[in-house]
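Quick start: load a record and inspect it. Here is TY-Chap central domain-containing protein:
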Amino acid sequence: MPKDSTAAVQVTNARIEATLADSPAFARIEPQFYVVRQGTAYVYLHVLPWEPDRALVRLVAQLAHGVEMTPDLAMKLLRLNARIRFGAFGYVAQGSCVVIAHTLLGGETLDAEEILVALRDLSVLADEYDDRIVDEAGGKRMQDLINASAAAAIFTDLDAPRAWDKG
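Running the structure step on this input writes:
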């Protein structure tokens, strides 16, 4: 009988939620998708089915958008990749975005300590390097983009006609 990854995804979701539930920095965005805030950085956890009976936890922090990748910046990120314990820096051309990402094997073998150690490393690195990258290469941190989006929504709401405005 073929196995299905649904059970592994459910176990993985339950382990993440049990491990991080007491953290005020943790939020469930939708089934299989979570976020943890560390300073000005956000680490996203996405649970994905994998193979017939497995799951993956993909941790990704978008550090800076609108960054021009230069050979100098690329070399610095590659050197950092050789020194960090978890994750790797990368560049997503669409959006000109520098990221740091790591993947954990989900399912029955995933434990709280594994989640916490990887998440701590990534979140601390993300919070430190989002500022460094923006200072050196330009662009905007995720926090800057979220603040700008929230401000735009507020001002759009203020500019919208209201029923009470009509005399």
